[in-house]
Design brief:
Elements (H helix, E strand, L loop, with lengths): L7 H14 L3 H14 L3 E5 L10 E5 L11 E8 L6 E2 L1 H9 L5 E7 L2 E2 L1 H7 L7 E4 L1 H11 L3 E2 L3 E2 L1 H16 L11 E5 L1 H6 L2 E2 L2 H4 L7 E6 L5 E6 L4 E2 L3 H6 L12 E8 L4 E6 L4
Parallel strand pairs: 3-5, 4-6, 5-7, 12-16
Antiparallel strand pairs: 1-2, 2-3, 8-9, 10-15, 11-14, 12-13, 13-14, 15-16
Helix pairs in contact: 1-5, 2-6, 3-4
Length: 278
Amino acid sequence: MKFLELSQKEIFTELENFYSSFENGYEFEQFLKIFLESLGLDEIEVTQSSNDGGVDLKATKQGIDELTDLDSIKYYVQAKRYKPNTNVSIESVRALRGILPDGYKGIFITTGKFSENSKIFATESKSRPLILIDGEELINHCIKYGLGFRAKPIFVINDIKNLINKEIKSESNLNISDENKNYIKKEISDNDIKARILPIPKSIFEKIENFDEYDLKFDGEKIKKYKINKNRKYFGGITKVFKNFKLIDDNNDRHPKGSFWFLNKDENIIEIEFEKNV
C-alpha cells in the first residue's frame, strides 16, 4: 500500500499517539513481538522476568538453510518506552553491547530518540553491532506494514490494542500458562510442514541433555517420545501431530502457525502448544 508522505509535525503527532497507546512497558514489549515478526525474526522470547542482564527480548533470524542453522543470526533486544522527545542515554546503549555474547547482534528500540554520539557508538564494533530504532523509524515501519495505521495513514489506537490483546489472549489460553514460566514463540513455517519436521528453538535445544529422543506434550495431551535429529535440530515423526492440530488439513493443504514452547526441566519434558484462532 502506498501512503502519502507525512510532515515531521504529523509524524511527531502520530508518535505521541503511538507512545500514549501503551499503558506500560509490558504492553510495549508485547507489541514488539509483533513488530519483530514483521521484520522477519523468529523464536521471539520475552525475557524481562528472567535473569538476562536487562535484555527485554531475544529473537533469531533464520538463514538460507534453516535446517543446518549455519547462517542464522541471534539478537538481544532492548526496549525503552520513552516520551518521543526524550533521548536514550549512551550508557544504556553501551550496556546493551556489554552483554552481547559473541556472534550476537543487538537491537535497541525506543519510542524516544538517540543522540548522535549513540548512533556513532552503535557502528563502532563490527563483531558486536547494534541496530538503533528510534520512535520515528518505528512509526515509519508500522505505517509501511499496517501495524496500527490505516490509509492516509491515521494511527488507530484500537488497532494496536487489538494486536496486543490478541497476542496476550493467545498466551492466556495456554494449558501450560504460568506467570513464572518464560515461553518461546516460534513460527512453524510452510517449509517445516512440507518437510514434516518440527524445528527446536535454539535456547531449548541448548538445554536438552538427551540428544536421541525427548518427551513432548502437545496442548496438554498425553506425553510421547519423539526422535531428535541432533545435527539439524528438529523433531521427526511429526506428521500425525500436524494433522491433529490442523497444520495439515484433510485436503493436505498446509497452514503455518505460531507455537509456544516451554522446557519443563523438573519433569524432563517439552510442552508445546500451537497458536489458536482468537
